[in-house]
Design brief:
Layout (H helix, E strand, L loop, with lengths): L1 H54 L3 H51 L2 H4 L1
């Protein structure tokens, strides 16, 4: 009778061990699949980081670019101010020509060039 009990207990233990082994294999396969997914996500993250590094500018480059832009804006402002001054002079030309013409006509009417 003892041998039958021992055999039954051994059989039950081997069955239990088999179930535990099956469950552990299942967990192992699941972990392997998750590792593969994590590897894919990590590769995607690495690609995103490379894209981000490629598309961003360092602080030094940004400061240099901003300085260059500020310098160009100042140059353009000076050029616009110079053009504004020239336009004001050009706007006065018709008035000056009219004034000169009036003086010449007045001088001619008074017989100025014939007597000179």
């Amino acid at each position: 009778m003892e041998q039958i009990v021992i055999t039954i207990v051994g059989f039950l233990l081997s069955l239990l061990s088999g179930l535990i082994l099956f469950k552990l294999n299942s967990i192992s396969r699941r972990l392997d699949r998750q590792d593969d997914r994590i590897d894919v996500l990590f590769a995607n993250l690495a690609d995103c980081k490379k894209d981000c590094d490629r598309n961003t500018v360092s602080k030094e480059d940004w400061v240099r670019s901003e300085g260059y832009t500020r310098q160009k804006i100042e140059q353009m402002t000076d050029a616009v101010m110079e053009l504004n001054g020239k336009v004001k002079i050009i706007e006065q030309v018709p008035e000056l020509v009219g004034k000169i013409t009036r003086e010449i006509v007045a001088h001619l009417k008074s017989g100025g060039f014939a007597n000179d």
